[in-house]
Amino acid sequence: FQVMRLLILSLLFVSTFAWFYGRDEPDRWSVGGVWPLPQKIIYGSKNRTLTYDKIGIDLGDRKDCDVLLSMADNYMNKWLFPYPVEMKTGGTEDFIITVTVKEECPSGPPVHGSSEEYLLRVSLSEAVINAQTVWGALRAMESLSHLVFYDQKSQEYKIRTVEIFDKPRFPVRGIMIDTSRHFLSLNVIKRQLEIMSMNKMNVLHWHLVDSESFPYTSDKFPELHGVGAYSPRHVYSREDIAEVIAFARLRGIRVIPEFDLPGHTSSWKGRKGFLTECFDEKGEETFLPNLVDPINEANFDFISEFLEEVTETFPDQFLHLGGDEVNDFIVECWVRNKKIRKFMEEKGFGNDTILLENYFFEKLFAIVEKLKLKRKPIFWQEVFDNNIPDPNSIIHIWKGNTHEEIYEQVKNITSKNFPVIISACWYLNYIKYGADWRDEISGTAPSNSRYYYCDPTNFNGTDAQKNLVLGGIAAIWGELVDNTNIEARLWPRASAAAERLWSPAEKTQRAEDAWPRMHELRCRLVSRGYRIQPNNNPDFCPFEFDEPPATKSEL
Amino acid sequence: FQVMRLLILSLLFVSTFAWFYGRDEPDRWSVGGVWPLPQKIIYGSKNRTLTYDKIGIDLGDRKDCDVLLSMADNYMNKWLFPYPVEMKTGGTEDFIITVTVKEECPSGPPVHGSSEEYLLRVSLSEAVINAQTVWGALRAMESLSHLVFYDQKSQEYKIRTVEIFDKPRFPVRGIMIDTSRHFLSLNVIKRQLEIMSMNKMNVLHWHLVDSESFPYTSDKFPELHGVGAYSPRHVYSREDIAEVIAFARLRGIRVIPEFDLPGHTSSWKGRKGFLTECFDEKGEETFLPNLVDPINEANFDFISEFLEEVTETFPDQFLHLGGDEVNDFIVECWVRNKKIRKFMEEKGFGNDTILLENYFFEKLFAIVEKLKLKRKPIFWQEVFDNNIPDPNSIIHIWKGNTHEEIYEQVKNITSKNFPVIISACWYLNYIKYGADWRDEISGTAPSNSRYYYCDPTNFNGTDAQKNLVLGGIAAIWGELVDNTNIEARLWPRASAAAERLWSPAEKTQRAEDAWPRMHELRCRLVSRGYRIQPNNNPDFCPFEFDEPPATKSEL
């Protein structure tokens, strides 16, 4: 195999010559471009034709590994050749993809920091994948699939020759879904997992429960979903969750559950005594309590037992326990509540509700500390901003009007030695009109657009601080999102975050350079059957997404 | 049949008791509510059980009418019973829907002003539909289908008893699609037609061609799509168009084509000499001409021949000829063009490009006047604002930052005796975060939200002026919309326009009153298989939309 420099520019880009606007380089897209951009990629000058009957995969010593078998099945039978064209056969030599993985086949999902590094060489005669772990092999195979393109002229599938060395910039690259405001079906969640893996994302942050509904089914405490779910149809059984975790694992994705405490808890009302009574300005009891009662000691036993079950359900070593927006309910539910006030006096907290919050969180930290299955807790940033997080905590940043404000927070929190995860740059539920992944959209906070340009380590700090930046999670809160629209709303906007979190910053400075590859990604995933919406103004894909036929009108 | 006043309120609304925010009345939705709200509706106090085997339809003298046969097929076999539940049979008397239509079965689509009036009576023993036209019968049947609900308690389909008299407030209630910026498949267009009919909308305004691509295939001038389409796959043959028109007809929908002239014409470049040369500030020729050359006399012969073909393709008596945003290109393509300047001098226009625009439009009016198949032209408002429209024209309003500005324009244009169609209130492509159909969303022009509150006749004017308001067309421009996302982005936001344009203003003053019905509509259409997105913050449907299963991960 000979490493060749890029010789022929026309191989890289296709021109359309159509009238477009709002773009520096309007009429090109990449051919065989890889998304997210690898750490190092050197294209050869030649392509080779691929035919269905001449392609094979060799899993070497790992022929029994379910992750690799699933990978081989998915890519060989679907993802490599997604276009609705007749597949040519014969007329060429065998093309074997040899996959070599150093570590044993893991029985569980990837863990934090699992290697995803890989080497990929594609020559005219073969492809070679070398990886430390099966997760690296999955990433390599996805890259390989991006090198495959359909040559409209010769009407053949081709693959670009290439040498790639690749590994992620950050260990946490995720999507947060919210199944409380609107329920999401297993099919829809799995589809997002598939698209995530096609963007080399590795974390599903599952915000399972919030004020509005409680779709998580606890075996120990069935009154929670019994009262708190939207309906008996709007629940995830523990088997459902196991199915999601297994599906995610086969795609190199961890599932981190969130149970938000002590606020956002209205839907826990099935548990008697768990929530305080809350009062409006006139002192009348409101019917929507939304804060845990911290003075009911039984609540901590309950949380402990509940979390023991949660850890048995979710194997990931991270456990998100929320902690956001307690302030929004504190006056109504704690300050105006006489029992709470009395308790605060007894404890010597005076009027300082922060001390009561700290009291709650300290007891929560102690619970986490004692869990049989050890977990590293994640908290939303308020627990850092207002309280005193357990030193073992990860802080999850969601606030900030500008990228600079967000970087300042990253700097501040990491200076106190807390690892951080950033979502503030990628609140994808905030939709606007325009190419918001790259352009600033007026009428919205600056941090709510230009997703591609948010770089979480872009602050003055030590290397140790920057190493505390674990990555980012693009959030799609569920207020206005359900099965009908989540997919097109997420993608390819979340792909911008995926590239930012995987690729070297210095090679991904300009959205203008990225979009021809993003366009190709979109069209590739559209042909794989996913609703990847246009997000760069007028364009087209060689093969468009389509719906099944509408009602037949012919009688 | 006895008309009964509403006796039992609990029949009307279902409560969910979940924690919601941002709503006056958070926890209710209608049961058997009709959208858009009929002119007059009086519910009975009782419901009757419907079973699949006991329901029948009697089309009376119109048993051979394809529109009614298609209707019977669609509703009896699909739309009346959309939920994924086991259907009970037997145990009740026959329930026959008797449909009586006065006018003969029409061979063509509905025409402007076709009656859509109907009477619908549902008693415990039968349903009776009386209508002037088949279009009225279609509207009645849709209303009837809204009276059907699934009773979760008894696990039965039921229908509400009711007496409805109904007719639309405005004759034009439409959706504008744009197939130039992004191509839309026939399946996707047909799905939108189905959802339109479920909202009693009756006009598809098809903005076929724009600067970006030319998907219309002309038999006489195949060089147009040959050069101007995105690809040979991105075109509508005349057979495709006939299929759309036939599909729309069976649902009571007219199809009005738009060919935008003289601007937005880059994609017509296949026709040599049709566009002027255009020049940038330095006098260099730009490669994206976007204005017709008005001094090339052959162009008018071409337009004439082209429009003859268009009128043979589209039977509707309205023909939209654009006329918008000529100003955007006039400096580049006319002012800086020496040949044009010379022509203007010769004609005595001096430097006044408006006179050249007028010259173009006068010749265009003359062409329309002489078409073999008579057409009423529609122009975007600039032709009124800047030029002198043919007195036969309809003016299409798309500008205005506030509802008041829009009403002022309606007042002004109707005072000059021009009929108007309003789109300015319903630019649905401008997405924002929130319940924009009813709430003002900051960071956007006020006219780009609160769709439900735009009332086109809300101006001081004579009855004659108000009668010139033909209705409205909700526009979903295609810059960021294609097959992947158009459906969820349109609906139910366009349903707000549908109710405004159909229902009496005085009964539809508050979005808070409307949303329980809109919620029920959303869930009904979701169960019919359409992607009707949530647009009222957290909620759920008894049966949610779902995707087909993702890739099987099991080997």
UniProtKB/TrEMBL annotation, chains A, B:
Ranges of residues in domain Beta-hexosaminidase eukaryotic type N-terminal: 69-145
Keywords, sorted A to Z: Disulfide bond, Glycoprotein, Glycosidase, Hydrolase, Signal
MF GO annotations: beta-N-acetylhexosaminidase activity
Enzyme Commission number: 3.2.1.52
EC category: hydrolase
Catalytic residues (positions): E325
Keyword Zinc-finger among UniProt keywords: no
Disulfide bond sites: C65-C105, C278-C333, C523-C541
Keyword Glycoprotein attributed: yes
Domain Glycoside hydrolase family 20 catalytic: 170-504
Signal sequence segment: 1-18
Gene3D superfamilies, sorted: Chitobiase/beta-hexosaminidase domain 2-like, Glycosidases
Catalysed reaction equations from the record: Hydrolysis of terminal non-reducing N-acetyl-D-hexosamine residues in N-acetyl-beta-D-hexosaminides
InterPro entries linked: Beta_hexosaminidase_sua/sub, GH, Glyco_hydro_20_cat, Hex-like_dom2, HEX_eukaryotic_N
Cellular component, GO, one term: lysosome
GO BP annotation list: carbohydrate metabolic process; ganglioside catabolic process; glycosaminoglycan metabolic process
Top-level taxon of the source organism: Eukaryota
Role noted for this protein: Responsible for the degradation of GM2 gangliosides, and a variety of other molecules containing terminal N-acetyl hexosamines. Degrades chitotriose.
Family: Belongs to the glycosyl hydrolase 20 family.
Entry protein name: Beta-hexosaminidase A
